[in-house]
TrEMBL record:
It comes from Sulfurimonas autotrophica (strain ATCC BAA-671 / DSM 16294 / JCM 11897 / OK10). The keyword Lyase does not apply. One of its GO terms (biological process) is cardiolipin biosynthetic process. It holds the Pfam family PLDc_2. SUPFAM superfamilies: Phospholipase D/nuclease. InterPro entries: Cardiolipin_synthase (IPR022924), PLD-like_dom (IPR025202), PLipase_D/transphosphatidylase (IPR001736). It is an enzyme of class 2 (transferase). NCBIfam families: bac_cardiolipin. It comes from the Bacteria. It is found in: Cell membrane. This is Cardiolipin synthase. The keyword Cell membrane applies. One of its GO terms (molecular function) is cardiolipin synthase activity.
Length: 471
């Protein structure tokens, strides 16, 4: 009996190892899993079932089905947005490549509001919700039933009682502490509430490693909000552990809202298995500004690694500067090489990350990269005025990104993310000034300081780096 069990476990290990060889996105990941599955199957097999897969089964098929069901609407969207697509001659290589990556066009005639930190962000979101006339779409990774959470809930219930249709999507893993009572109260008010359901489908039953990390609010198809904030008191700097919470969101008013809405609909169809039929699909242009915006969705259901290619494209295209702010820095080898080459080209490369840690393994793993990257002139800064959570890029003097994606393997391969790429000199200046203020509240990490670290600390950073495929 014992021999049969042992044999069965080792056969599972071999089969899982074959699966890792065929499906792992990186050779390093495949090698690590194969060695573990063959030598330690008792431990590695269950870990692989939960954390090993890099493809999200079923979502692509659901997305295609949703597209078929709204073919007439999509054709209408294409027709309506044609007037807002810039001429090909007006786009540079960065923009043309980014469009191919996103499988969406840049759209102009957008107005943007840069929302720095939680107070401005949620003032803007709550004002938008209160102004809603037809419908509200919300999608967040983390929702807490604390003061801010209940303020959002009460406002949504009030609007639902006024006849506004509300569709509310959350990630069940990120929001695992959210009470059932909080959700039931919204449902009783007529709000449609679903979790993203990452374990939906037989092939995803044991898969808990994927996350819907998007943060989206859409009101009446006219305004959209995306960025780093989730719904919780800590995002208003009310958490004693972290203190000031440094984060960034943007409000988009204009045709690009339709692109954000399309991404929400794809996620909604996966979770709820029905389409929302009350949505407005006619783009509304801004009369004040004419900013070009490209909405870039990325997910583990993509054929290409959209998020990592987006970062690679930004780093490689820089001719003057590339400043990146991320709450985590656990990149793959390709991004490391791109950063090193940018430094060797003389580009002003700065990586801004938090001083404080909210995930200790991620915090430790970042140290293992600093020395080799810094050797080429890349500068690392740690933000020390609270906790830095924003995901923002500045490329030269014209291109910017406000995103939900971090500079790490999870955002590259495991998370559903959304990014707004903006081409506009005035908005780039706003982002530049924001970065400069953040650098004033940061300190540069020096190689000499890293070399002084104790052996055990250096060992811990290298061990933490080994966990990067699932961080």
């Amino acid at each position: 009996m014992l021999f049969t069990i042992v044999l069965f476990v080792y056969i599972l290990g071999l089969l899982s190892a074959l699966n890792a060889i065929m499906t792992a996105r990186t050779s390093q990941g495949a090698t690590a899993w194969v060695i573990s599955l063959v030598t330690l199957p008792y431990i590695a097999v269950p870990l692989y079932w939960f954390f090993g897969r890099s493809k999200f089964n079923g979502y692509t098929a659901a997305r295609k089905k949703a597209e078929k069901l709204v073919t007439d609407r999509l054709q209408n969207i294409v027709t309506q947005t044609k007037n807002y697509i810039p001429q090909e001659s007006a786009l540079g290589i960065f923009e043309r490549t980014s469009q191919q990556l996103a499988k969406m066009p840049y759209l102009q005639a957008n107005e943007l509001d840069l929302l720095i930190d939680g107070e401005k962000t949620f003032q803007s979101i709550l004002a938008g919700i209160n102004e809603a006339e037809k419908y509200i779409l919300l999608e967040f990774y983390i929702i807490r039933d604390d003061n801010l959470g209940y303020q959002i809930q009460r406002t949504l219930i009030k609007k639902a009682n006024e006849g506004v249709k509300i569709y509310f999507l959350y990630d069940e893993i990120g929001s695992y502490e959210l009470s059932q009572n909080y959700l039931d109260e919204m449902r009783q008010a007529g709000i449609q509430v679903y979790n993203f359901h990452t374990q939906k489908g037989i092939k995803n039953r044991f898969q808990i490693n994927f996350r819907n990390h998007r943060k989206i609010v859409v009101v009446d198809g006219k305004s959209a909000w995306i960025g780093g904030h989730n719904i919780g008191d800590e995002y208003l700097s009310k958490n004693k552990k972290f203190g000031h919470w440094r984060d960034t969101h943007i409000k988009i008013t204009g045709p690009s809202v339709i692109a954000v809405q399309t991404i929400f609909i794809e996620d909604w169809y996966w979770a709820a298995e029905y389409l929302i039929d009350c949505l407005k699909w006619n783009p509304v242009s801004s009369k004040k500004e004419n900013k070009k915006v490209l909405i870039v969705p990325s997910s583990p259901a993509d054929i290409l690694e959209t998020a990592s290619l987006m970062f690679m494209q930004a780093i490689n295209s820089a001719t003057k500067r590339i400043w990146i702010s991320s709450s985590y820095f656990v990149p793959d080898s390709a991004i490391i090489k791109a950063l090193q080459l940018a430094g060797l080209r003389g580009i002003d490369v700065r990586i801004l990350i938090p001083k404080r840690a909210d995930h200790i393994l991620v915090y430790l793993a970042a140290f293992s990269y600093f020395k080799t990257v810094s050797a080429t002139g890349v500068k690392f800064f740690r933000y020390n005025n609270g906790f830095l959570h924003q995901k923002v890029m500045l490329i030269d003097d014209s291109h910017t990104a406000v995103s939900t994606a971090n500079l790490d393997n999870r955002s590259f391969r495991l998370n559903f993310e959304i990014t707004a790429l903006v081409t506009d000199n005035s908005f780039a200046q706003e982002i530049k000034e924001m970065f400069e203020n953040d650098f004033r509240h940061s300190y540069e990490i020096k190689i000499a300081e890293l070399e002084k670290q104790a052996f055990l600390f250096k060992l811990a950073t290298r061990l933490a780096r080994l966990t990067s495929p699932v961080l």
